[in-house]
Each structure stands twice: as structure tokens, then as C-alpha cells.
């Protein structure tokens, strides 16, 4: 027998959980379907940089208590190049907005706890999720749970199930247009229980890109650029630390506290955007619709802004019988997505060493970095984009 709800949310990551939380606070029923176990979802280590607009959305959703207590507010990030010169992307000074360092894993824990407190319905470990009758008045979702097929009738479906999820593939190929760019390198990332440097810093070096970041006062996150064909098993902790410190300014390298890594991963860099982000009664949000290089720290923030726009549209529909925001959801969300995609593409090109890079390309990078340093207008533009434009 079928059960029913107002909104079925496919995907139990941050986007799906946040959407469910906001909807329930506005008396809109939803059910979240997640392919993995809760433990698996909570084990995934992802981004940790929140735009202030994202912070405000999380506060309004009543999931910010631990973030406000443990998160680190800072005024921006640094850029260092050639092991010497450096600048601060001071978002507070040039854009009037600070940033918040708070790990996505911790945020997901907070969202699960909030859903539990309100009795939100989350069904984990479901298989063979399928979307039906998306252009009709009453779509439905079927799935397998404990070897039994289940069905949920609903008004709307939110696809928050990531790049490899089923939601985007439910949109006909004749309707969907995709844009993709793959980069010829990857990021090798490690997590260590060591004190981080005070300011997250991007490093451009002839040996390749590096990034020093933090999660908590005793949890550091580090990245280095590596060839796309890299085998992670070839990278011992000692080799990683040696390569990282070789790419940092000398005073930074001397203050890095090394130690055993507790997590190591490899992430190829790519950009992907799908248009439109809606089809009939289906709406895509987060990685289901777009993937960006982590250089600009936009992935989680775009997921939150998607949820902001989508939840506003659903609230307006149920409370005011007004569908204008839902009808405009894809256009509104994609405007912000493409702004972030362009910025991430620009910053990735500026800070990385490309395999086919010529001496001309290298010098052009250096001159552009000098220009950002010397021009208040260029710095303001960079800071505005890095901090994230205000939500509409």
C-alpha cells in the first residue's frame, strides 16, 4: 500500500536534511530517502568553509547552536605564491561579510539531530529508487526496503541525492543540457589531529598548488595538487608532509605540526552544471545539479542556497497558493550556480600548475596575482565572489 506526504526528498546529505528541516518548521510534511546508512553519511569528510549567507540560513533553520559555539569566524583566506609574496582575501574589509569554518561532517550531525528532535522521517538504506509521473499532478516514488517494494505519493519531489544519484537521470535527455570541464589534476587531501595554521591559505608554487585549512583548534585539513593518474597508495604520510611543506612559504612550513593522518583521499577536479534544475514536479538541489572544483569553496554553499530558494518556493505554494517562486526556481538557482562556477574556474586557473603550462602562461599568472594585490577594485571583486553574493 502507498503512503503519502507533501514532499519526497531523495538524499539524506546536508541539502536533503536541511530542506526537510526548513519544511517541517513551516508545517510542510516530507519524507527523506537515503541510499546509505546514517553511519556512512556521517563518515563522509567534505567541505568546511561557510559563506555568511549560509550561516544565516542555518540559523533560521534552528541548526546553528554548535556551529555558533565551535565554528571559527574569520575575515578571509590567504594566498601565497612562489614561496614568498602573500595577500589576504579580506572578505570582511572588502565585501562586508565574514566566513565561518565549520566542517560539513559536523553540520550533517547537527542536521540529523535536529530532524530526530522534531520527529522527522528519514528512511536509510533504500535501493532501486524510481521517480514516476513527474509531469502529472500527483507524482510518486517507489523504492526497495528490506526486500519489499514501497511507494510514496506526493505533491513534489526534491532531488538532493548527489552527482551519482537517480534524480537528475529522471529528467529526459531531450530536456536536460549539461556543461562539463575536467581538469588534468587532482587534490590529495589529508586530515590530521594537529593544530592548524591560523589563516586558511592557498599556495601557488612551481611544484604545484597547496592549501592549508582547518576544521577545529586540533583538526587540520591539507591539500596538494597531484597528477590525475595518482595512486593514493604511493603517498605515505612522510611523503605528503615533505611535499606540502616544500610548497609553502618558509615561515609557514616551519610552523606546520605534522603527525599521523586520520583520513586521506583523492579528488579529481571538474566542473559540471545541469540545466534546467527542475522538470515538472521534480526539483534538483546541490550536487545533483552541479559540481565545482573545491578551490572556491562553493559546493556546500551552493547546496544551501539551492535549498533556500526551493524551500521559499514550497512555503509560498503551501501557505499562499503562489507558485511564482517555484516556477522561477531553476532560473534563480542557476544564476548563482553560474556565478560560482565562473569564479571557481577563474581561481582554479590562477592558482594551479597546469601540465602544458608555458613560460608565458606562468608569467601571466604571476602578473594577474600582482594585479589583484595592487588594485582595490580587483581585490573587492575577488572578495565579493569568494564571500558569496547575498541571497535573493
Structural overview:
Helix content is 37%, strand content 29%. With 392 residues, the chain is of the alpha/beta class. It has a domain of 234 residues: FAD/NAD(P)-binding domain (3-Layer(bba) Sandwich). An eight-stranded mixed β-sheet has the order 7-6-15-16-17-14-18-21, sandwiched between helices. Strand 2, helix 1 and strand 3 form a beta-alpha-beta unit.
Secondary-structure map:
Layout: E1 3-4, E2 7-10, H1 14-25, E3 30-34, H2 38-43, E4 49-51, H3 52-60, H4 65-70, E5 72-74, E6 76-81, E7 86-90, H5 91-95, E8 99-101, H6 104-117, E9 121-124, E10 127-132, E11 140-145, E12 148-153, E13 156-159, E14 177-192, E15 201-204, E16 210-216, E17 219-227, H7 237-246, H8 250-255, E18 261-275, E19 278-279, E20 282-284, E21 290-291, H9 299-320, H10 324-327, H11 329-351, H12 359-374, H13 376-387
Parallel strand pairs: 1-12, 2-3, 2-13, 3-9, 6-15, 13-20
Antiparallel strand pairs: 4-8, 5-8, 6-7, 10-11, 11-12, 14-17, 14-18, 15-16, 16-17, 18-21, 19-20
Helix pairs in contact: 1-6, 1-9, 3-9, 9-11, 12-13
